[in-house]
Amino acid sequence: MEFFRIKKDIPFMSYGRLTTAISLITFILAIYFLAVRGLNLGVDFTGGTMMEVSYPQAANIEQIRTAVQSVGLSDVTVQNFGTSRDVLIRLPVKEGLSTAQLSDEVMAALYKADSSVVMSRVEFVGPQVGQELYENGALALLLVSIGIMLYLYFRFEWQFALAAMIANSHDVVIILGFFAFFQWEFNLTVLAAVLAVLGYSVNESVVVFDRIRENFRKMRKAAPKDIIDNAITRTMSRTIITHFSTQLMVLSMLIFGGEVLHNFSLALTIGILFGIYSSVLVASPIVLFLGVSRETFVPPEKKQTEEEALP
Amino acid sequence: MNRYPLWKYLLVAISLIVAVIYSLPNVFGESPAVQISTSKSHLKIDTELLERVETGLKQEEIAYDAIFLDASGIKVRFANPDNQIRAKDALNQLLGNDYIIALNLLSQSPAWLNSIGALPMYLGLDLRGGVHFLLEVDMDSALTQAAERYVGDFRSAFRKDKINYMGISREGQTVQIRFNQAEDVKKAERIISRDYADLTVKETSSGNEIILSASLSAVAQKRIQDFALKQNIQTLHNRINELGVAEPIIQQQGANRVVVQLPGVQDTAKAKEILGRTATLEIRMVDEEKSDAVTLDNASKGQVPFGDEFFVDRNGQPLLVKKSVVLTGDYITDAGPGLDQQSGESVVHVTLDGRGAGIFKQVTRENVGKRMAILLIEKGEAEVITAPVIREEIGGGRVQISGMSNIKEATDVALLLRAGALAAPMEIIEERTVGPSMGEENIKRGMHSVLWGFAAIAVFMIAYYMLFGTISVLALAINLLLLVAVLSMLQATLTLPGLAAVALTLGMAIDANVLINERIREELRNGNTPQASIQAGYSRAWDTILDSNVTTLIAGIALFMFGSGPVKGFAVVHVLGILTSMFSAVVVSRAVVNLIYGYRRKVGKLSIG
């Protein structure tokens, strides 16, 4: 079986203007939604209490709400998730009230209303911890970006490092944009997914870059534009097969992983889809735009060329 | 050309054998158990106790699978959690407070596996159920307490050396002493610099008063904070032992935080209460000179005389209690609940250490006929439990505290006093609790994700790449095996995000094989011979695989460094998975390809779809 038997190189670089325009529009939209709606940050980052409880029968949301309010809390969200028997309760941070004991009080109130309630999960994060996790998350994102750029700079050239970083930041911003648009909850697990996507998506760019470098050495007479087109066409089959396989795994997590892994897999799905697009159609035009030529890789001396061509 | 030297085949074979052995315990699984240990040095865990436990369980007709004695105590294994819980309750009855009876999980693998240190993967709290707490120590309050102690120390030191002072008070974390004679200031300064090296003194004057401000030096502050943290960790250890948790984790994190993980704890409310309680005992004198009705009435309206504090005791009786502390909970060596022999009231029996007993004896001798207030301080709020009249001098260091409302309260107070006081209050700033049923559910979810995802990839790869696809799937399966083996060997904590990382890593690891297979196809298309295509495919793909894995590795390591909780669990597995995938996808799959094609004289066509 073979899906991609492409005889001629596809002139990707000629579509450069179109693809850049598409990227720019999605990017700006993502930024817009991030700015206007903002991320729906989970308790990990905002602080607060989140409780997951389940009942043997369908849960009575109204009764639960009344029970929680009887503890003296007003700004609570009570909602079903997954099945009608599972309920998610969110309690915001309140000055002087949001202590770790709060969840016990709520649980006691729920138990009084209906003794069949079972506690599945409680997460309480103090506001100071939330702030720290937020800062550490941002720091991790920054460090990952710098680390990858440095590696690419040493392995390839600065043009590649910069292009890969722009393409992948674009992926990250778009994932965040989706989370802002749909107001999906953004928590620590989703942050892990975003960082994994960053690594994964760079992975993509690297595969194409490797080919570009190889082509510069092999295809002596071709123009940089054709070299890049050839590199993308040759790696396209692999790009799509790999992403398809990874997506199969992520899909499996989306179906079987339950509430905790749900948003995690969503972030990965968006990351994988846009990862294909960005590494092929964003990173490469930027490389071209930043100006790479044969001299970037192949120094004039012939001897060294031979050495470097060894596997 | 496609032949490995013998050592490479051996390397692959040996690593596979080791991986299989170390993954095996995960197949056998774990069974519920009860672990009996003690923190008391005079008690021995020996075969005699083992027999007692055995007969006890037989009497209660609780069936068990195995019972044995090892370095960490007696362990009894059960077929199901019901028997385990019943046994725990029965043994608690049988052995009493001196032994710690904890619920545990024991590996069911054969002895030879245990003896080479092969253990099942260490499951995180979200997979086995339990509580994770992050506690923060209130360091300001530790320093305030230290300053408070100096106030008392100065009073007695100045009295002894006959230095006249106008007043001593604590302002924030500094102690201020007011004088009106310059020579008293000189003497006081000499004493402070001689006896209290931790303090730095500053002199200021207002009007005709001279004020000495003594504050803790930076070094002393650091030492007090370190001590507070250590003392709190020790206290937490004691309290958790009382709770009966098999493998608690209590670790310092940063300068002022403590992580506590209690696997398998079901009653989280109880755990929280016991951990969070900062109860300590203080014994202070009632200010008898100011106990007339008018003063007490004024005090209840906020006009509290200097050096006193106003309380209402449990019977609604107003009291003025002196601020200076006679004794604190630090001097307590043991405490236990009991009943008063005359009144039948619930009481707590407290035993004081030598120094405490000495102080207590002296104070009771000097204050016969006066009242002594016993205060329970919790979260900075003091409550007078009881304020009995001292009838006679009490020696020997045995004190009985009455005023408990019932035996349960007496038990709780005794536990808190026995387990020791916290040196400074602590607050839970993060909690993650997962119920036991949720833990099982999470394991199922994670496993299903991995297995179904794996199956889908396998079907696709085999259909698409034929024999080479099958080899790729084999390599992927070996990757999973290696990952499980490495996680079991390192005993790294496996969490639900960790299981997600297993799935994701497998999904990404297939990339290496896709790269290789695509390269081989391409080489074949370019008209190369099958053998040359295999050779070129692997060697060309290697550069790319290395580059792409290093970038993923960078992301993984950053996640590990800055992530906490779920993110860290993800990162560990992710990083390990990348490393194992490089071995399995390149070295192992090549070994298989070599074995299949490398030794044929003539290869007509590669089965690569």
Summarize the structure.
The complex is a heterodimer of chains A (311) and B (609). Chain A has 311 residues and is α+β, with helices and mostly antiparallel strands.
Helix and strand topology:
The complex is a heterodimer of chains A (about 300) and B (about 600).
Chain A: H1 16-36, E1 40-41, H2 43-46, E2 48-54, H3 61-70, E3 77-81, E4 83-91, H4 101-113, E5 118-125, H5 127-155, H6 158-182, E6 185-186, H7 188-218, H8 224-256, H9 258-290, H10 294-297, H11 302-309
Parallel strand pairs in A: 1-6
Antiparallel strand pairs in A: 2-4, 2-5, 3-4
Helix pairs in contact in A: 1-6, 1-9, 3-4, 5-6, 5-7, 6-7, 6-9, 7-8, 7-9, 8-9
Chain B: H1 6-28, E1 30-38, H2 47-59, E2 66-70, E3 73-77, H3 81-95, E4 99-107, H4 111-115, E5 122-123, H5 125-128, E6 130-137, H6 139-160, E7 167-171, E8 174-179, H7 182-195, E9 199-206, E10 209-216, H8 218-243, E11 249-253, E12 257-263, H9 268-276, E13 280-286, H10 293-300, E14 308-312, E15 318-328, E16 332-339, E17 346-352, H11 354-366, E18 372-378, E19 381-386, E20 398-401, H12 407-418, E21 426-434, H13 436-490, E22 493-494, H14 496-525, H15 530-562, H16 566-598
Parallel strand pairs in B: 5-22
Antiparallel strand pairs in B: 1-3, 1-4, 2-3, 6-12, 6-21, 7-8, 8-10, 9-10, 11-12, 13-15, 13-18, 14-15, 16-17, 17-20, 18-19
